[in-house]
Amino acid sequence: MRMYLISDNVDTYTGMRLAGVDGVVIHSKKHLKEQLDKSIADKTIGVILITEKFSREFPELIDDVKLNRRLPLIVEIPDRHGTGRKPNFITDYVNEAIGLKL
């Protein structure tokens, strides 16, 4: 299985290409939907890396894949501008997921 990047900027795409990850740069909801469908249909792709900007702008597309499919796994990554998450994101996630305060 391989990873595939769907990015909204060339810098993230270039960095991932240097790491050996193939992908595409897109800028619209229509193209995001097309690329997601194409990536899901490709059985060699096990992980789709997607920039956080797309997750914030089009959550209905991303959440549909996350909730209704086992593969590929979608992993949201920050772009060159940094993450849109709070500094204690991981701790809050664990607290919410298992109800354990760390």
Automatic annotation (TrEMBL):
Could you tell me the superkingdom of the organism this chain comes from?
A: Bacteria
- Report the GO molecular function annotations: proton-transporting ATPase activity, rotational mechanism
Q: Which family does it belong to?
A: Belongs to the V-ATPase F subunit family.
**Pfam families documented for this protein:** ATP-synt_F
- Do the record's keywords include Transmembrane helix? no
Its source organism is Anaerosporobacter mobilis DSM 15930
Indicate what this protein is called per its UniProt record.
Answer: V/A-type H+-transporting ATPase subunit F
| Keyword check for Lipid metabolism | no
Q: What is the lineage of its organism?
A: Bacteria, Bacillati, Bacillota, Clostridia, Lachnospirales
